[in-house]
Amino acid sequence: MNRALENCLRIYEDANFYDEEFRNRQFDISFFVETAQQIGSPVLELGCGSGRIGIPIANASIEIDGIDISQPMINNGRLQARESACNNMQFHLGNFSNFDLNKSYKLIFCATNAFQHLWDDEQISSCFESVRRNLAPTGIFLIDIFNPDSNKLLRTWEQVYVFKEMNTREHGTLVVSARSEFDPTNQILRFQLDYRRKLDDAQIKVKDIEMKCLFPDDISQFCTKHGFKIIEKYGNYDRTPMTPNSPKQIIFCTPH
């Protein structure tokens, strides 16, 4: 197994902690639900995790499949789908850089930077090829990644800053500090999140994460290389047009 996949498995092995960390994140869900409703069933989510986005789509009467490499996340997703009486979502354990579900999807999407777990051109190309095999001829491939911020890429490992606070059932309020560094040769952003209890500064968890920085020209080149044309670009979930200073790259592309 390559280092990128090993990194993913480490990040998401504690699925319960991950779900608790993001249980209140709601601001992006309506974007994906509305998009799925506009395009229609069936839908496939790459890197679906435990269904934070997929289950609301399913509950909007859309038939959706999800694929993820993390067995703990898949297990949590199946449990949460059962608990919410969600019958329209199926979870599949697998690597979304190389998959074939023998189905023709109207929409395939990869949300909230999950696409950036693919570190090298070969993995990214394999993902595009897999999408093309599983996408309807007039289907849409939606990629949602962050837009690299040059100021953030200049940070050094010694610069530690408070990233956020989060509330947990077991540990109370946690203060999350971060540090990062950018490898321009490989376009990899490495960052570390340090979770400490606010009450006594006890360390609860450390996450070491590495993600591929894809610039707008990179995405355009991959689309062209694999026979996709970009039809829409948004800079955030409110569907504002993408600009160089947008926080997000939300790309809609289709085969041609």
Automatic annotation (TrEMBL):
Which Gene Ontology BP annotations are present? methylation
- Keyword annotations: Methyltransferase, Transferase
Q: Name one GO molecular function term.
A: methyltransferase activity
Task: Respond yes or no to whether keyword Methyltransferase is given for this record.
Answer: yes
Record carries keyword Cell inner membrane:
no
Record InterPro entries: Methyltransf_25, SAM-dependent_MTases_sf
Can you give the residue ranges of the Methyltransferase domain? 43-139
Would you tell me the protein name for this molecule? Methyltransferase domain-containing protein
